[in-house]
Request: fold
Amino acid sequence: MFKKLFSGTLLNFWLFIAVSCGIILGNFAPSFLLFILLSLVCGALAYFCYKKNRFLLSDIFTLFLFLFLGALWQLPLAHQEIEQFLAKNNLCRIKVTSLPQESGLNNTFFAQVERINNIPLRTNIKVIDFTKSMDYLKTYEVEGALRSRQYASRNFYFLWVKKGTLPKEISSPIWDKFNRKMVFSALSIFKRNLSDEGYRFIASVFLGRRELFRQGGRVFTDAGIAHLLAISGSNIALIGAVLFFVLKIFYIKFRPRILISLLFVFIYTLITGANLPTLRAVIMYSVFAVSFFLKRKMNPFNSLGLAGLVCLLFNPASLFDVGFQLSFLSVFALILGFMLFPFRPGRFAILNCAGYTLFSSLYVSLIILPVVSYYFGRVYIGGILYNIILIPFFSFILIVNFLLLIFSPLPYIAQSIGALLSLFIYIFDILAIRLGALRFSFVNYTFSMWQVVVYYIILAGILYSCCRSRFAFLR
Amino acid sequence: MFSLTYRERIVLLIAAGIIFCGAIVRYFQVNTKVTAAATFASSASQPAATIINMNKASQEDLEKIPGIGPEISRRIIAYRDQNGDFQTLEDLKKVKGIGEKKLQRMREYITL
Reply:
């Protein structure tokens, strides 16, 4: 079983697909007894088919078993809708997940709801706090009114915390206290050494504190490069790679380097809030690191499937989260693209590399286009080209930022690096503004659900007919 | 399809069994909490203790209403002193700083 993570078969990938389908089924057809019965039947059939040496049928029933298990796993959450708590006072247990921003008479911040009236419910909300007493990464029990607002076919939820009420602080685990300390230390280093704009930018892209960069972020959204502001797999990969090579300078051996970089990446993920794209990237990086450690061949589809399974086991409702969908779809598109259209350096390596990056950007954009359009109501055209210009520049900014953190105990060196980093951020911002202002950077259009389905069917058909022989890896 | 060995199938079946048992336990756990919380929910939704009488509230009480700060509460009291009690909730819009949006937000916390 463990070897299958690293072999050519796609067990984890197909299990992930099966569980995802099960979660969708469980959300729309919540029937507890039916799914229990179907799970038992599929499990028994899988076993009996194996005994009769019908291995293909046994595998198919195993997939169906996991499909119905996914439905069962989703069922408790399928029953609980936040809508039942709207427009009345509730006792909510919330964990503050962003830095509170002062806005007149109240503070606003994002929080994760853990319970409403003692009913477990995992969802993210925006809190309007008139008590102005709640702080980052602390858990509170508060009384307030829940409201919702619809925007672009999605519901956003708000909690109004009244002024007269006193939020009751619940003691935080030791990890959250450590997390707060690390985040505030990093923020103070950035604030000391960078310009105001640079501080907000780096706080957003390196620590995930997007609330500090709200106004500036719109420029990147218009240019179709808002994904650069989010902490995602590219951050994890870059940090892991930079640390790996920095440790090499200190003559640390190969295997300890992998372990240290892995440990650092884990800590970084937890400090930045362990959002779904980051969690996905960390699990894939872990599989990659372990495969290096054990000197085994790794299958990227399997590691993607394993990452998906772990995320869904923690919270099956995350399947419906736009960050989860875009993150997994992008990585799936990248892996599929590398397999179908492998890179061949050729004679002019740099030109070929640039051309291949543009091509990768094109087919990833093609694959995520309907989902982006469905959620955000825009089709980004310019982003295909802007990525090739801005991603290498952005990676350079992250590396310099990393150096700033390493040299932060040495004030003069840190200030010099900070000044350089502020300049790069300023140039990056100007580039994003200029590119976003170009005509046809994006077109306003919203795909309907049926259009999304038809689009993917047509795309799958085109890819399969063009590259039939290269799909052998799916068997 | 997956070329699994016998041992690997057993491991997969055990993993499925653990998820199966966990899902059932989770389902009953959540449902029990839902039932126990039902009575709590009905008592927690009583807004009576937090409704503020706009004609009788002190400045301190007025400041408890979302959207009302020290300045607006002073203006409300000044309006009451000059013009008498509010007759309808719409009269609150005559106080500088209270518009339609603010009034909508305040409605569930106030009475006359």
Q: What stands out?
A: Residues 1-46 of chain B form one domain. The longest helix of chain B spans residues 6-44. The interface with chain A takes residues 1-4, 6-9, 11-13, 16, 19-20, 22-24, 26-27, 29-31, 33-34, 36-37, 40-41, 44-47, 50, 63-67, 69, 105, 108-109 of chain B (CB under 8 Å). Residues 78 and 95 of chain B are 9 Å apart (CA to CA).
